[in-house]
Amino acid sequence: MGEADRVLTLLTPERGKLRVVAKGIRKPRSRKAGHLELFCRTNLLVATGRDLGIVTQAQLLDAHRPLREDLLRGAYAAYAVELMDKFTPEQQESRELYHLLADMLHHLSQPTPVPLASRYYELRLLTLAGFQPELRRCVLGGEAIMAEDQFFSAIQGGVVCAKCGKNRAGLTPVSMEALKYLRYFQAQPFSKVAALKLSANVLGEMEFVLQRYITHLLERQLKSVEFLKLIRREVLA
Length: 237
Prior knowledge:
Layout: E1 6-12, E2 16-22, E3 41-47, E4 53-62, H1 66-69, H2 71-87, H3 95-108, H4 114-128, E5 150-153, E6 158-160, H5 162-165, E7 172-174, H6 176-187, H7 190-193, H8 200-218, H9 223-236
Parallel strand pairs: 2-4
Antiparallel strand pairs: 1-2, 3-4, 5-6, 5-7
Helix pairs in contact: 2-3, 2-4, 2-9, 3-4, 4-8, 6-8
């Protein structure tokens, strides 16, 4: 905004998502710049403006420095932030969403397996946003899901049993093992999820199922998804 100012999108516990102006933040000698970088958690004093609030004071609480020093973790953080942005309405109290994102950025800043943290974050965010996927009963027939390979319907928002899903178009196959862990992630705290050792195949299947569902809900794929895939390919190469 102009030559020296910047418009910031904030997530706050009391007032939800806000857009504010940080005046002079792009000047080399700005005292606020270091407190208002991407992924930072900061205490702010915001004055009421005509259209947007104006940041008058900023005190850094948690810099999450590893997210700016490690490209892969930074890419996961960018995905987490964009996903939160898409599912969060403006100016509505969202303490649980705020703490979910704060915890996610903290986990990504630690030696935590990032795929586990991301799958847990996605499922928890979907639940808090009112889109919790149904993983225990068939969304078409209503019967309890048996211990066997199933299907997932992004349109219906949950699992479809093998009988109802047979020869039905538009469904995503989901193995019994992947479904078991999706249920576990949905029901358990992250402290237990972080201790798991999952194969790359199972993690990839869980990611594919959740991405199909999220893309359907948002009616588009997030920009950060392709960037994250690119970074992962470069890291593994």
